[in-house]
Write a structure and sequence with these properties.
9 helices, two-stranded antiparallel sheet, globular
């Protein structure tokens, strides 16, 4: 038992060291990485109705949390953590020691994303460094929305044009629900290639939005108990 206790303490110490190095690297890198993501003054911003749909499903406490959240239906991801993943791990490659650490953390996340806490630390650093509106702009402009007609779609504007045949500014709350329903798994829930799975997901999302169903705890992002 003593050996087991010492082993657990050693493991905990290694985890703390790992997360401390992640925090240092993220804090040292965030300004340069954000600067490389130049703000596009012409990029669309969500209307209040569109934003309400997005946050209800993807991040209910976005404006009150500090990068992480345990809201019902949140799971282990927030908009902040999604942006942090794309910014720190899959954004512009860094050089020198920072680039080495970037590649290491990307490999760890790709291997063990269900248990790796590195992205969560990056989300905390990002939230302390970028306004909520900046995070939203990055998310709306860069969220992965699947492959369609042989090309990868990034951002809600591209998704609205491809799947709904209209600009994002013209999308109403129902159309926004159709887009948001894909975000959890854009290729598995593709409205063309996997229509049945997509329609079931959409019906469950609509039930949550309409107040007919609530997430079953903070890990419930599938709403499998919700009646279509």
């Amino acid at each position: 038992m003593k050996r087991l206790g010492k082993g657990l303490l050693a493991l905990a110490a290694l985890l703390l060291v790992y997360l401390a190095v992640v925090a240092w690297w993220a804090a040292a890198s965030v300004d340069a990485l954000l600067a490389q993501q130049a703000a596009d003054a012409t990029a669309p911003r969500l209307s209040q109705g569109q934003l309400a749909v997005l946050l209800r499903i993807e991040d209910p406490r976005f404006f009150s949390h500090r990068g992480l959240s345990l809201a019902d239906g949140q799971g282990v991801a927030t908009i902040s953590s999604a942006v942090a993943r794309d910014l720190f791990l899959y954004g512009a490659p860094q050089g020198g020691p920072k680039g080495v650490l970037q590649r290491v953390y990307r490999a760890v996340f790709d291997c063990c994303r269900k248990v790796d806490l590195g992205r969560d630390v990056m989300a905390l650093v990002l939230d302390a460094s970028a306004s909520k509106q900046r995070q939203l702009d990055l998310y709306v402009g860069g969220v992965y929305m699947g492959r369609h007609e042989g090309r990868q779609l990034r951002g809600l504007e591209a998704a609205a044009q491809a799947y709904l045949g209209k600009p994002l500014a013209a999308v109403d709350a129902d159309g926004m629900a159709q887009l948001v329903a894909m975000i959890k798994a854009p290729n598995e829930l593709h409205p063309v290639r996997n229509r049945d799975a997509y329609q079931l997901r959409l019906a469950r999302v609509q039930a949550v939005l309409a107040g007919r169903c609530e997430p079953d705890g903070w890990l419930d992002t599938s709403y499998s108990h919700c009646e279509p």
